[in-house]
């Protein structure tokens, strides 16, 4: 059973014990912004966590108290498990973490520091950086899958009065394949996809997603899609409405976004090998569903 200690107990321990080590297991930037006075910092997310702890605390009998942000986070619990498995015999966890410490009226370092919320997405107009953005496509059949990329030729995102609009233009002639190692097979696949059997890029060199609105996804946590984007997707001159669950977050240079879209290619007149439209295809059967993963940096 995990040893836990509340803020009052931590205060008593720090006042009466000179050998106890208080360990902040959060990211270094969080530690620098605010931490309990006297705490050391070793981030539990780092692969060298135990190596660093052994260097700083070589005696496995040393009393250690670990903490993170709140009772909602499992970082300190994870640290206790790692330390115990690593042979440390006297490890406790501060119940409620920094939030409980502050609720008990205790100070943080630096003096006057307070817990900071996650930064929000700022309203404004952003230009999609084509050099740092791309779309990864995945197509499948009974034998496996093929994947590759599409370049984003241009685009912009505007966030105003709580709503998102914008445009993403895809250069269909830029289509690549990343799974086939033999150049002749890879070139044959790419040429087939560029041809009239699939995307007919000489006639339709650009696809476009017109972003119309967004709505927050209730209960979304970091690492999960937090907005649902409504858009019109145009491929081969055919336009249909789509919904993109997207993970959107502020970045030092603007905003980053990742969205995954599953489309039925036949709705955009990409018909080759569709079992819904042709019979007895044999080895030429290709799944109707195609996955498009958008990775965007807008500045």
Automatic annotation (TrEMBL):
<dbReference type="InterPro" id="IPR001307">
    <property type="entry name" value="Thiosulphate_STrfase_CS"/>
</dbReference>
<dbReference type="InterPro" id="IPR036873">
    <property type="entry name" value="Rhodanese-like_dom_sf"/>
</dbReference>
<dbReference type="InterPro" id="IPR036761">
    <property type="entry name" value="TTHA0802/YceI-like_sf"/>
</dbReference>
<dbReference type="InterPro" id="IPR001763">
    <property type="entry name" value="Rhodanese-like_dom"/>
</dbReference>
<dbReference type="InterPro" id="IPR007372">
    <property type="entry name" value="Lipid/polyisoprenoid-bd_YceI"/>
</dbReference>
<dbReference type="GO" id="GO:0004792">
    <property type="term" value="F:thiosulfate-cyanide sulfurtransferase activity"/>
</dbReference>
<protein>
    <submittedName>
        <fullName>Sulfurtransferase</fullName>
    </submittedName>
</protein>
<dbReference type="Pfam" id="PF04264">
    <property type="entry name" value="YceI"/>
</dbReference>
<keyword id="KW-0808">Transferase</keyword>
<dbReference type="Pfam" id="PF00581">
    <property type="entry name" value="Rhodanese"/>
</dbReference>
<feature type="domain" description="Rhodanese">
    <location>
        <begin position="16"/>
        <end position="110"/>
    </location>
</feature>
